[in-house]
Amino acid sequence: MPLTIGTAGHIDHGKTTLVEALTGKNTDRLPQERERGISIDLGYAPLDLPDGRRASVVDVPGHERFVRTMVAGATGIDAFLLVIDANEGARPQTHEHLAILRLLGVERGVVALTKSDLVDGEILELARLEAEELVPGVPVVAVSARTGAGLDELRAALGTVAQERSPDCSATRLYVDRVFSLRGVGTVVTGTLWSGSIGEGDVLRVEPGGREVRVRGVQVHDTPAERADAGQRVAVSLPGVERSELHRGDALVAAGSFRPSYRLDVALDELLEIPARVQVHHGTATAVARVARVGERWAQLRLDEPIVAARDDRVVLRAGTTVGGGRVIDPAPPRHADAERMAAVERGEPVVHAPVRAGELRRIGVEVDGDWAYSQAWVDELRAELERAIDAADPLDPGVSPPSELWADAIVPLLGFERRGAKLYRPGATAELGAREEAARALESSLGLEPVKVEDAALARHLEEQGRLVRLGAGYAVSPEAYRQAVDVLVDGITLAQFRDLLGVGRKTAQLYLERFDADGITRRVGDARVLRRRR
Known about the structure:
Elements: E1 4-8, H1 15-23, H2 31-36, E2 43-48, E3 54-59, H3 67-74, E4 79-85, H4 92-103, E5 109-114, H5 121-134, E6 140-142, H6 151-161, E7 173-182, E8 186-195, E9 197-199, E10 203-207, E11 211-214, E12 217-220, E13 223-224, E14 227-229, E15 233-238, E16 251-254, E17 261-268, E18 277-282, E19 285-294, E20 298-307, E21 314-318, E22 322-330, H7 339-346, E23 356-357, H8 358-362, E24 372-373, H9 376-391, E25 399-400, H10 408-411, E26 418-420, E27 423-425, H11 437-446, E28 452-453, H12 457-465, E29 470-472, E30 476-478, H13 480-488, E31 494-495, H14 496-503, H15 507-519, E32 523-526, E33 529-532
Parallel strand pairs: 1-3, 1-4, 4-5, 5-6
Antiparallel strand pairs: 2-3, 7-8, 7-16, 8-15, 9-14, 10-11, 10-16, 12-13, 12-15, 17-20, 17-22, 18-19, 18-21, 19-20, 21-22, 23-24, 25-27, 26-27, 28-30, 29-30, 31-33, 32-33
């Protein structure tokens, strides 16, 4: 089964050097990392354990400026490798990284006392005692990446504590931590697969944003795999997607399984003085949030940017430093933060807001009508969300794509929108030029027999629908009068050269007209000539 180990520890305590000694791979891939001698981004390497298992190692930066990156790398790991310089002992990021691991619920791990060959026995023993007090019950191993001392013992300790996770067959969810392009492959994303599996041909959604993508191929540690399972470090190639369209923090999810939310109800781990605004870290995403405390134990996080979360996920809260964390008890709560509702949700009582399959409620003895249960407040919030999206849409096409979740067929008809083709519109909504009216008039005045390049494709399509121009080829347009003039010179069996001369235009222009005539069913190409399909 898959197994992922994440490093932790203060800058310059030797995390990357130790990972290279254990795996043979230098995880500092960026030129600036090698020039400066510090890790800036996440690094990855395969680790062969003594019992034959292969684990994935995520190496994180130790500098205080990159704690956000450390959290992104630590999410989804099964065990930690806390690295402490035997001479320096625990330092500020040692403590903060350890606090983050605890908030993420990562309890198993090993402490490596690095650079042990550079200290005497007394100092090494003091370092060991400090580590045992800092992380009670966790194996502590003295190692030297330079001499190799203790590396076998460290591999054995990691093999002992790194218990394999149970198979997670729930819906696919992968949080993106790196995006890059490869020649001949296209855009590739990497991440730790939180749940489900990914294989070639799968159709997933990128959230937030809702873009549909198809998986071309999957690799696990640079080796092609038919399918990757939850817990594995994977690279996924996505054809037809530009590198700039994906970012760290995005989630690849099974369609209809997870919906981004601007609110999270959280049960706090500790009763801390959490400020009114914090950075929320979840998966590989980070978002600023306002904190609405509810009683002593709960908070509603009101996010500036949506996050894709599920019940029982862990979040870390930071404000300059790590100030707390908690467990998600409702990933899509109503706006009102209510202590009674949160207490009921945490107890597992069926408090329904976002859609829940009726069958799930019936299994716990709650009878409901229909296939889905949901609150009217949630329907109102969804309608308001779509209204905002319509307000931001192009006035020439004032519609939005409907939700694609499994509940969509039951909920969308309740929202009061008109469905036209693949989009939702306000009832009676029509295309409007708005601020484009002046540009439309200027474009019309420039049109004649010679095609004019039109950069605004939506505007050209709208004006054609109104009979104000005719589009030719890819991005060109002529006046309706010019189009009719060109049709009038057609004769049965006309060649490109003959048509060009009769119309008095160049070869390229003549070709654009003839291709449009073919598309309109006026002509049909036979050899080098066009024959008329119908009377004019």
